[in-house]
Write a structure and sequence with these properties.
The protein contains 14 helices and two strands, in the order αααααααααααββααα. By secondary structure, it is mainly α. A two-stranded antiparallel ribbon has the order 1-2. The chain starts with 19 loop residues before the first helix and ends with a helix.
Length: about 400
């Protein structure tokens, strides 16, 4: 269904208010709600925290924009709170980690299949296989540390299999930068895809950096440290796809359009009625933000926003299992490496990254240790014990 970005006005910023009680809504059910409700919640928290992060950076560089940025940020802060607090305390930090990796896999797969630029699609598939491997490593840790089956969170939507081994994902910074899209030629959908992945991956990095030190188990602490480093690489990779010649206001306009697009995508597919009402409310709020920035863009830069964004939003992000696409990508591209800005066959792997990786793994790789001999079975590894005893 086509959605008009410029004709849908939403709620003006001055009417976007919250009370403390309504900020903290009833939580979703860990097991009874569809897994993609949680996927959407985690994704939208990442999109909101990216909006906050961008708003603070922009304010440091633009005195004239500080007040409108502060006004919008206040609402974004409260939106992020309401969204993130939908996750219940019955999720252990490791179970939430499993959910974060499901977000990374299924959302990246959806974007990669719908990406109009072949180079960007290749970059997304490259990152996808690394997140796929992270899920496998964390599933092993969940099984062995808490005795829980990761599929209780995944609900059979996402496979638990090794991807590109995390131990070989470590790259020199020289090999994590990618070629940026050209802002005047790039398809608007490409710009929205990049911002979606930047927000999602940055959130994952920050989450792992926050909860990693809270574990007592030494292997768990090291595992989070190792994968958090890869998540920083992913943020570097996806952020480098943004054209650095975009003005601050152009980037702000794109951020607001991306929030509209993501909330619109969530609204079209949500099965939890309480959560769906939040998506509808925040879609209207983001439309209000978009039109505020649209006015600033016209007044300050004297440019038509239609130069940057079309009137109609693209088709929504497909929140569904992409198992066949992921398996096909795994089969065909798991061995690929990065050399400079290019994704290359393994024999062309960068010498800089090989040296970096050898040093980092010089005393072993926690992601290899935690999954040694691990093969996912329904109900955890303990289900294989009786067979061994016979």
């Amino acid at each position: 269904m086509a959605f008009s970005l410029y004709d849908s006005h939403g709620v003006p910023l001055e009417r976007q208010r919250f009370t403390w009680r309504e900020l903290v809504q009833p939580t979703i059910s860990k097991l009874d709600d569809d897994a993609f409700t949680r996927v959407r919640i985690i994704l939208m928290n990442g999109i909101e925290t990216e909006a906050l992060r961008f708003g603070h950076a922009a304010a440091r560089m633009n005195a004239a924009l500080r007040l409108p940025l502060a006004q919008v940020r206040r609402c974004e802060q409260h939106q992020a709170t309401m969204v993130n607090w939908l996750l219940g305390a019955d999720h252990s930090p490791l179970e939430t980690t499993i959910a974060y990796e499901q977000v990374a896999i299924e959302v990246t797969a959806a974007l990669a299949q719908n990406e109009p630029d072949p180079y960007l699609a290749q970059v997304y598939r490259f990152g996808l296989l690394e997140d796929f491997d992270h899920l496998y490593r964390y599933a092993a840790l969940l099984d062995r540390l808490e005795g829980k089956d990761a599929n209780n969170i995944l609900q059979c939507y996402t496979d638990i299999l090794p991807g590109r081994p995390t131990a070989v994902e470590h790259r020199a910074p020289d090999d994590d930068l990618r070629l940026p899209y050209a802002r005047q030629q790039a398809h608007p959908l490409s710009k929205l895809h990049v911002l979606t992945l930047v927000g999602s991956e940055f959130q994952t990095h920050d989450y792992y950096m926050t909860i990693g030190p809270l574990f007592a188990d030494p292997v768990a602490r090291q595992l989070y440290a190792e994968i958090a480093s890869i998540e920083e690489q992913h943020v570097t990779q996806y952020s480098s796809l943004i054209d650095p010649t975009e003005s601050w206001l152009e980037q702000w306009l794109l951020h607001e359009a991306n929030e509209v697009y993501n909330y619109y995508s969530c609204l079209q597919q949500e099965t939890n009625e309480q959560v769906r009402a939040i998506w509808a409310r925040f879609l209207d709020y983001e439309l209000g933000h978009f039109h505020l920035v649209e006015t600033l863009f016209k007044d300050i830069e004297r440019r038509d926003p239609a130069e940057v964004l079309p009137a109609t939003l693209p088709e929504p992000i497909a929140f569904k299992s992409h198992r066949d696409f992921v398996r096909s990508t795994l089969q065909q591209e798991v061995g690929l490496r990065a050399n400079g800005t290019q994704i290359v066959p393994p024999e062309q792997d960068s010498a800089l990254s090989q040296a970096y990786r050898d040093y980092m793994n010089g005393e072993g790789s926690p992601t290899s240790i935690v999954a040694e001999g691990y093969v996912w079975v329904p109900g955890t590894e303990l289900n294989r014990m009786p067979a061994r005893l016979h």
